[in-house]
Records
---
Amino acid sequence: MTPPTALTIAGSDSGGGAGIQADLRTFFAHGVHGLVALTAVTVQNSLGVQGFTEIPADVVTAQIKAVASDMGVNAAKTGMLATAEIIRAVAKTLDEVEAGPLVVDPVAASMTGHALLREDALEAIRTELFPRATLITPNLDEVGLLTGISVSDAASQRSAAEALLEFGSQWVLVKGGHMQGTAECVDLLSDGREFISLSGPRYETENTHGGGDTMASAITSSLAKGASVPDAVAAGKKFIERCVAEAYPLGAGVGPVSPFWVLD
Ligand code: PXL
């Protein structure tokens, strides 16, 4: 039997915790065949990102076209896109091919605070990619960069969701994991009509590297299998909760969320 396919358009993490490495194992864990358009090679370990080199934009485009034209893409997600030129190329190419629902994870910086985007690229994400997205999945740091809104409670989280929807995506998931001093991690999903609050436990761990990527690729996997956005997000939240609960130390800095529970 041929499984559903999902395409990740993202960067490589030499530490194996985030980026395409996280995406591919998350697709696998969902029984989804992973396809890749590599955008950048990062040099990093648990202590941080030492640097990155982007892939030429025409090579990113060619990777997307190669897999979409032959193998078929049931859903796609974007992670680290590195430059405005790559963002524009990805947006244009996704208009030209069949790639199913699109999840845009607006990756701007690593957990350790290192920039993963050149400076002019944030504007390109807002204007070129968000209008094409089925769902965008910013964390609170990215919400701040994208809207200027500092989310500190349910009311400001809702204002942020409304402001982000103005950029044109169908749905937004404002992830509350980075909110200070809350016992639960509350994420807010909205399409502008429905506001769905998803609450889950907060685990005490420093090891959350790759968490955002893993959640976005879990959601993309469910979309590739035909789930609705609210169902895919609810399942993605359950999936990432287990990954965070079993996150492990590796290296002297921030360890990765763990995919290994799926083997139990
Ligand atoms: O977690 C965001 C992210 C995405 N993609 C790559 C990364 C990181 C964080 O470090 O390295 C390649």
Note: The chain has eight helices and nine strands.
---
Amino acid sequence: MKPRKIKDNVYWMGAIDWDRRLFDSLIPLPDGTSYNAYLVEGKERTALVDSVNPPMADELLSQLEGVPKIDYVISHHAEQDHSGSIPHVLRKFPEAKVVSTPQGKDMLKDLLGIAEERFHPVKDGETIPLGGKTLKFITTPWVHWPETMVTYLEEDKILFSCDFFGSHIATSDLYVTDEGRVYEAAKRYYAEIMMPFRNVIEKNLKKIDGYEIAMIAPSHGPLYPLPSFILEAYRDWVMGPPRNKVVLPYVSMHNSTKKMVDYLVSSLVEQEIMVEQFNLAVTDIGKLAINLVDAGTIVLGTPTVLGNPHPLAGYAAFLANAIRPKAKFISIIGSYGWGGKTVEVLAGLIPNLKVEVLEPVLGKGLPKEKEFGALDKLAETIKAKHKEAGLV
Ligand code: FEO
């Protein structure tokens, strides 16, 4: 794709990765993604903002064909989907310097072998004038690694935000046209990589609050000409309370746990609690992550296998522990054949979650009156707990 003009002397460059379906060999990308780079041309100097994933380097280099010189390559984040083609750019433009945080410099040296003399490290708040275009660098750690920063283009009031506010969507739309689609993709991205660092993200949001932002230009997905849409969404995900909602990831082998899940879902609905259930044998873990962003309670459903929770339930617990949702309560339901340590093992997998554990419901074989009664009681307890916590 050819460069696309955003403002006078500001262009989108980069690559749209329509076919990519997995990130970090872990994160599903149902809609592909894009690697957005930007060219900012001042009267005296020119800057390239980020680069692209290395397999797509040729696309960026062909977009740079007519560009006589690059003085600065702004590297917001050392992860290779944005930085990986910087060595190609540096070979093409031998006078170019890489602008990054000092931490970013160390990471880029480690990950890409860029030589010390090619760097121009910047401090928080530092500016680089290009001639009629001024780049201001704002450190924003943990969006998504510790070294990250964003760039504010003062004259045009554009915030180049890299992963921050990004969405994994491959689209020919330069700007957001379908807010519902972008909302879900951006929430998925936030849940998967930023939610664990919520407290720092809150500080970053407050830090950029002080800037008048006319447009947010992330490094994944479409640009936001109306930034309030994504800023308000982030404020809600980061600072808002969880909802009157139960997320119920489960796995069932012979239908006993499934019967308990179905019964509990019905009972929760009677209590006017929203429920999202996910069969871990077939679910997209990104969908689960999206729903963990604002769940008030998590209930894990699992059979006991060789004395332990089913490995897929262990995986879900491990994932929840890693991404640290703001849920306030958790419980476990499921079946067993002859005994085991399902509850103890799962509880040991979630030390990061600040949750109150509600009485688990485990039954031998198919659920019977006793288990159904306990599931009704669990639904009532969740309702009462949500009320107490102000979620209803
Ligand atoms: Fe899009 Fe953390 O890289």
Note: Residues 279 and 306 are 20 Å apart (CA to CA).
